[in-house]
Design a protein that fits this description.
Chain A: InterPro entries: D-isomer_2-hydroxyacid_DH, D-isomer_2_OHA_DH_cat_dom, D-isomer_DH_CS1, D-isomer_DH_NAD-bd, NAD(P)-bd_dom_sf. Chain A: Residues 9-280 form the D-isomer specific 2-hydroxyacid dehydrogenase catalytic domain. Chain A: This is Glyoxylate reductase/hydroxypyruvate reductase. Chain A: Pfam families: 2-Hacid_dh, 2-Hacid_dh_C. The complex is a heterodimer of chains A (283) and B (271). Chain A is α/β, with parallel strands linked by helices and 283 residues long. Chain A has ten helices and ten strands. In chain A, the strands form two sheets. In chain A, strands 6-5-4-7-8-9-10 form a seven-stranded parallel β-sheet, sandwiched between helices. Chain A has a three-stranded parallel β-sheet with strand order 1-2-3. In chain A, helix 3 packs across helix 5 (115-126). Chain B has 271 residues and is of the alpha/beta class. Chain B folds into two domains: 10-49 and 242-262, no CATH class; 51-78 and 92-234, NAD(P)-binding Rossmann-like Domain (Rossmann fold, 3-Layer(aba) Sandwich). Helix content of chain B is 35%, strand content 13%. In chain B, strand 1, helix 2 (34-39) and strand 2 form a beta-alpha-beta unit. Chain B is globular. The chains are: A alpha/beta (283), B alpha/beta (271).
Amino acid sequence: LSEKVQAIYMWWHRPAIDRELLQSLPNLKVIANSGVGMDHLDLKLIASFGVKMANVPHAVSSSTADAGMALLLASARRLVEVHHIAMSSDIDYCEADILGVKVSGSTLGIIGMGRIGYKIALRAKAFEMKILYHNRTRRKAQEEQAVGATYCEKIDSLLQQADFVMLVVNLTPQTHNLIGKRELELMKPTATLINISRGAVVDQEALVMALQTGVIRAAALDVTYPEPLPRLDHPLLKLKNVIITPHLGIKTDKTMYMITEEAVENILAALNGLPMPSEVLPS
Amino acid sequence: MWYHKPVVNKELLQSLPNLRIVASSGVGIDHLDLKLLSSFGVKVSNTPFIVSTDTADLGMALMLASSRRLVEGYEMAVSPDTENFPADWLGTQVSGATLGIVGMGTIGYKVAERAKAFEMKILYHNRSQRKKEEESAVGAVYCKKIDDLLQQSDFVLLTVNLTPQTHKLIGKRELELMKPTATLINISRGLVVDQDALVEALQNKVIKAAALDVTYPEPLPRDHPLLKLKNLIITPHIGSATKKTRRTMMEEMTESIEAGLAGLPIPREVL
């Protein structure tokens, strides 16, 4: 059987691609990933076996942008908290205690303005949000104008002005712990951090401290490190001003379908010796 | 007046001979008997426009939270029993889906503006059709018959006033016209929906889910069947509940009261 395998379509990081597996599949030509993040794969190792790799950037962008906005709105309007109040037997609450933060007209800082970041900007613009962004490279002028986004070459400038900071970067050695104690302290005390990228982009211990001491107002995390968080008393699981979701960025019926379509397209191209629409090269 | 209290009835009005003005918070005035107040020579004001953006934001928040199963997801993420996140746990896509807006006033239109950025197809039902430029700006298609909207929408969002005509606008018939995969979002008034019919529809999966910022009464009695449903998000009437907006509402109400007491034209008077 192992001689017959030419392609692997990965589903949520399985199977684990290690040297053993690669050695046991001599005719493997391509690995397609069911998502856009490739940080769980040793790209150099895979390439050294002459195996091509692909991700699915187009399929995931809309639903992940939607999830980012869902988290931003849920956190700002305290949706999870007040839902529990509305459903619970304890209905004595003070109205002043359930006030949220206005989203429309506020400032959104997008860190990582790739495909997903840009779709977030398009959505945020409709909420009349002022948009700042930080990225390795600046976007074209027309792209900036279309969403009214202002480039912040220095991340500090974005952090100091934003009411909502949204992380939409790849996980790389450069973005590991990108948001730590220093960055959190630069943020406004009324600001909210939203992470839809990878858990390791944030220094989680620093985040816990910042949330406990009011350095920032709240956080909404679709991703953590690890996933799920260890159950035994992890502080993030207990904080009132945190929403955690189970890495649901791409988890919709429609997107699952599109992911498979895009992955299969790449696999067929690789098997037929044609250029792959979303090939990922080790770099 | 804040959250419909105190109740303004004949007894109260008779006991307050020098009452000149009732300033009501928010935009809805369905809780006020305007004819009665007028007969006592008492003027009425509300705070119509300031609430629109936050309420539209909340409508979007509820649609996104419901479709992506945010509350369930949160509970799973923090539950002591969770060992892994299941691979087949899916929500419903918002981007590219069809939104049907019932009531295209100020708030409904703001919802349309937001939904357009999510590449949603927008249908709307309203007493009157909007101008062509307004429709094209948000890509909204008019449905003269509410049935057409109900049959095609993945999300049905209610943003009407409560009037005798909109009372129980969404009942058993309307819920059955909706797709079984559809979600109902109510940010208008609890009485716009036949609540008993909604309970049945949710229990029998006639529709997929609902998200309600408003119910009748508010709050619901603690043994109400709605509170037992899993495919439901309820929020405690927080449409305008942001610090900024509440502050502005109070400023506007104070301004109306001062004008009323000074015998000057009243900003935001309700006639």
